[in-house]
Amino acid sequence: MEWYQYLAAFFSGAFLANAVPHYVKGICGDKFPTPFAKPPGKGLSSAVINVLWGLLNILIGYVLWHVSHIKPGNHPGMAVFFVGVVLMSLMLSNNFTKKDKE
């Protein structure tokens, strides 16, 4: 794999991890922070905005997945993808833990 394919794999994992909370909260009808809220990332956006934001993250993650050319037997590529998932998940859990306290 080329270096940019590893970068695409990492960000594919990050975008797909970010899609999960927004899409799930949105389809549940709950308000949840997005970059479009006031203040960005701290205020609450509507369920519709969260669904759309989650779908956009899924689309970007999917495109990056294809750019990375990750295949099941490509262990280094899969590892980089999952590092992106783990790091984004930990960052989001830390950030969203504070959402109800502010």
List keywords for this structure.
single chain; 102 residues; mainly alpha; two-stranded antiparallel ribbon; 69% helix; elongated
Structure description:
- With 102 residues, the protein is mainly alpha-helical.
- 69% of the residues lie in helices and 4% in strands.
- The chain has three helices and two strands; from the N terminus they run αββαα.
- It has helices spanning 3-27, 47-68, 75-97; strands spanning 32-33, 44-45.
- A two-stranded antiparallel sheet has the order 1-2.
- Helix 1 runs antiparallel to helix 2 (47-68) and helix 1 (3-27) packs across helix 3 (75-97).
- The radius of gyration is 15 Å and the shape is elongated.
- The termini are far apart.
- The mean pLDDT is 92.
Annotate the secondary structure layout.
Blueprint: H1 3-27, E1 32-33, E2 44-45, H2 47-68, H3 75-97
Antiparallel strand pairs: 1-2
Count all strands and give the number: 2
H/E element sequence: HEEHH
Kindly report the average pLDDT value: 92
- Biggest sheet statistics: 2 strands, antiparallel
